[in-house]
Design a protein that fits this description.
By secondary structure, the protein is mostly helical. Helices cover 62% and strands 6% of the residues. The strands form 2 sheets. A two-stranded antiparallel ribbon has the order 1-2. The protein binds calcium ion (3 copies).
Length: 173
């Protein structure tokens, strides 16, 4: 998968209503949905952390402050540097929300909850899970997860591309 294809797929996932613009509402709704799906309250420290990371990221993403991000803006912005500075804390925050037993890894059940909350297909979820469980220990560790997404958004060959799209699962943004 080449860089621009990967970016188009990620953009399409974040533009939930398909109007060609990622809105602040669409972006912030992700953490709220995962929080709700995992039964967390608004004052849960992990919910606050995820929300704060999302707001910080959005400030960087919507650089001209018009409340939306088009694909042209996203394409220029996205990449390894943006991932490290901006996206990783957001994805880590969503990961932590989904890690309901707090053991630092996602079980198949926790992963399924995350996928469902983010509105991604959960068909073939077992195949997606095993692609992201790089060391095959039956858990997706935080490191496995973030490294796979980073490789994907950087345009490198990554199991995330397969897990996200051909298999219809997993998380980016
Ligand atoms: Ca939209
Ligand atoms: Ca866990
Ligand atoms: Ca693993």
């Amino acid at each position: 998968m080449d860089d621009i294809t990967a970016k188009r797929l990620i953009f399409a996932m974040l533009d939930a209503d398909g109007d060609g613009v990622i809105s602040a509402e669409e972006y912030f709704a992700r953490a709220e949905r995962v929080a709700a799906a995992t039964g967390r309250t608004k004052d849960d420290p992990l919910v606050i952390a995820a929300r704060t990371a999302g707001q910080r990221a959005w400030t960087a993403m919507d650089a001209n402050g018009d409340g939306g991000m088009t694909f042209d803006e996203y394409e220029v912005w996205a990449g390894a540097r943006a991932f490290d500075a901006v996206c990783e804390p957001v994805l880590g925050g969503l990961f932590d929300l989904a890690d309901t037993d707090g053991d630092g890894a996602l079980s198949l059940a926790e992963f399924t909850t995350l996928r469902t909350a983010l509105g991604n297909p959960v068909s073939n979820i077992r195949a997606a899970f095993s692609v992201l469980d790089v060391n095959g220990d039956g858990q997706i560790s935080r490191e496995e997860y973030l490294a796979s997404v980073r490789a994907h958004v950087s345009g490198e060959d990554s199991p995330m591309g397969e897990a996200l799209y051909s298999l219809g699962a997993a998380e980016v943004g």
